[in-house]
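Input chain follows. Return structure tokens only.
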Amino acid sequence: MSEPATPPPQLDRSTDGRVVEFGAALGALTRLGQLLDRNLRDAVGISQGSFEALLRIERSGGFMAMGTLADQILFTSGGVTRLVDRLTAEGLAERRPCPTDRRIQYVAITDAGRRKLRDALDVHVEDLEREYFGRMSDHERRVLADVLGRLRASDQACS
């Protein structure tokens, strides 16, 4: 019987704690995203992506440049155009031209979009509490928010 082959040095990193921990974090966020998306679709008829876009638009005062929205939700310009097309077709948002620059398009939330967002927020908060934050102490939530905020800020410093 021969001895098991020694893995090449680069594969030794597959068990590096950072690789394992990142995989665990990504898996948890993916699972949570799928769950939240399914529940939002079932309960109020919108996707997690549509919810996130409506939330960002509302938080910005009710309208924002489509390029800014794409940057915030990490979509390509084509992806955000398709998303805004769907929101517009559903009456949840509307496009508005920029009065000073024809190249810029704004997207604004409609009254129907605000109602849909309010309903979606009720579902979303309940899901977050039940599936995620309800399993954490206040301290753990603050630590998580701090760590994720630092990771996000380091990404923005590089772009």
